[in-house]
Amino acid sequence: MRGPGARGIGRLTKRADFLLAASGGRFHTARVTVQGRRRPDEGGASNGPGLRIGFTVTKRVGHATERNRIRRRLRAAALDAGLSRADMPLDVVVVARRDVLTAAFEDLVEDLRRALPAVLRPRRPRTDRPLSASGGGRAGGEAGGTP
């Protein structure tokens, strides 16, 4: 899946592109978190046409061979899931969890299919959440600490 030649889906390779995609919408499942945004139509050097996907698999997920296997599975699932939106100027980052290793391939494809429209939805403005009735907002009970 290198460059735009892989059936119209490109790769994110620069850190700046990953950070910009992280500023967009998010979609969470037990296996992956997907972050993405629509690219502006500026036609810069890094703005190739169509869908571009980047993968993040941290060391916390497993050893190098497991991380590589997770990346390969996600790459194949992304090809299957992203074909319907391959012509849209989207940058998408898939952050993997360990459950990707044991999940059925069809579940991975379905997660990514559901994630693509979800990350394109406009974000709702955050409203200030009121503090809990205790006023402290702490989950441990009263604000005085432990006796």
Q: Uncertain runs with pLDDT below 50, 5 residues or more?
A: 1-5
- How many structurally independent domains? 1
Give the tally of β-strands: 5
Following the backbone from N to C, one meets helices and strands in this order, namely EHEEEHEH
Query: Rg, please?
Result: 19 Å
CATH architecture: 2-Layer Sandwich
Q: What percent of residues are in strands? A: 15-25%
Question: Topology of this protein?
Answer:
Blueprint: E1 10-11, H1 15-22, E2 25-28, E3 32-38, E4 52-56, H2 64-82, E5 90-96, H3 105-120
Parallel strand pairs: 1-4, 4-5
Antiparallel strand pairs: 2-3, 3-5
How would you portray this structure in words?
- This protein is α/β, with parallel strands linked by helices and 147 residues long.
- The chain has one domain (3-120): 2-Layer Sandwich (Ribosomal Protein S5, domain 2), CATH 3.30.230.10.
- Helices cover 29% and strands 17% of the residues.
- It has a 5-stranded mixed sheet, with helices on both faces.
- Helix 2 (64-82) links the parallel strand 4 and strand 5.
- Helix 2 packs across helix 3 (105-120).
- It is globular, with a radius of gyration of 19 Å.
- Residues 1-5 have low confidence and may be disordered.
